[in-house]
Specification:
With 363 residues, this protein is of the alpha/beta class. The chain is built from six helices and 15 strands.
Length: 363
């Protein structure tokens, strides 16, 4: 399998469908995976090809509206649950490998399981997955009696029953549905991390709070896995006068803790990283879609890998995982379906090299 791009210094990019590309990769060839798949019903990334119908038709699958702030965003008209497989004007069949436009959330979850089953195969035995997912609200009156997932190659029914209204006016719980489905497929669900956003996207809702968080799930391939807790420990500060550092003057942040657990003063300078991470969203100016803030995934890469290890992102978008991995002296394997986005990744990689050379010259 030949990569689309190889910078010769650790970043390798493949162009194509994530599932097909993963299936062509060697088993146990990467140390960790840090990724954010397309969310269900959020955006059409423009990778469609049409078969049949009227070749002159301006195809539509649900009155999708695009805007200048987020090209491809499903802002009105098309919502989760709309069938995106057929043009509503001419009947042309949609040929597309992108994820997120499935008719049902069950189909979306199944595809997630398929992809991450292959991710599990290409991970080393002590590897980890750091999976960022956002949620979706349901629409329509569809009844849902049960959903299905794939575990060990066999289709299994999940006893999920909904009321008469299906998911209309309801938060579906996509992140947790995916997490539990992956757990059924053999992953170890080790932690749910809350990404708290001080600058969330404004919402004009009047009957619920504005959404200001997403999930990152830490999952492992085995019971025992590589996790460098020391690499991401946090500094501490507190008002507890019973706990002081070596010079007995500064106070450390250990709320509710004292020396009573057999701990010494040296234990209080740093604390284990906690499960709520407050990170501002920082859109990449060249991209018309959501991107990882680098500060969000640095702890994932630092805790999940060592210098020289390979980090995988099967939905690489603007390439933040590769960019940050390179900054942290890791290698990366990136997979992206949309060719235009790969050019963003290449440009970003080259900019990173230029920035590093400028720093070296200043020194």
């Amino acid at each position: 399998m030949k990569p689309y791009y190889d910078d010769g210094d650790g970043i390798v990019i493949y162009h194509g469908d994530s599932l097909a590309t993963l299936r062509a990769m060697d088993s146990e060839s990467v140390q960790c995976c840090v990724t954010s798949p397309p969310y269900w019903g959020l955006r059409d990334y423009g990778t469609v090809k049409w078969k049949g119908g009227d070749s002159s038709c301006n195809h539509s699958v649900g009155n999708q509206v695009q805007d200048n702030k987020a090209i491809g965003a499903i802002t009105t008209g098309q919502r989760p649950g709309i069938d995106a497989s057929v043009c509503i004007k001419c009947g042309a069949i949609r040929i597309d490998s992108q994820l997120g436009l499935e008719k049902t959330h069950e189909e979306y979850v199944e595809k997630m399981v398929e992809v991450f089953h292959e991710v599990k195969r290409v991970l080393r035995g002590d590897g980890t997955l750091w999976l960022n997912l956002g949620d979706s609200y349901g629409s329509g009156q569809r009844k849902t009696q049960k959903s299905q997932t794939v575990a060990n190659g066999n289709r299994q029914d999940l006893p999920i029953k909904r009321g008469k209204q299906g998911f209309a006016k309801q938060l579906i719980g996509i992140p947790w549905l995916v997490a539990f489905a992956l757990q059924s497929d053999g992953w170890y669900l080790r932690s749910d991390i809350i990404w708290s956003k001080p600058n969330p996207m404004p919402e004009s809702v009047k009957d619920r709070p504005t959404k200001s968080h997403e999930y990152i799930f830490l999952m492992s391939k085995s019971k025992k896995y590589f996790y460098d807790a020391d690499a991401i420990k946090e500094p501490t500060v507190t008002s507890d006068a019973s706990v002081r550092d070596r010079d007995m003057t500064k106070l450390n942040n250990t709320p509710g803790r004292t020396r009573m657990g057999g701990l010494t003063v040296n234990n209080y300078n740093n604390r284990n990283k906690r499960s709520v991470w407050t990170v501002n969203t920082k859109p990449y100016k060249e991209a018309h879609f959501a991107t990882f803030p680098p500060d969000l995934i640095k702890p994932c890469i630092m805790a999940g890998s060592k210098k020289g290890d390979v980090v995988l992102d099967p939905f690489s978008g603007s390439g933040t995982t590769g960019y940050v991995s390179k900054e942290l002296n890791r290698k990366s394997v990136m997979i992206e379906l949309k060719e235009e986005y790969i050019q963003l990744q290449i440009d970003r990689s080259n900019q990173g090299v230029l920035s590093l050379k400028k720093k070296i010259r200043r020194k």
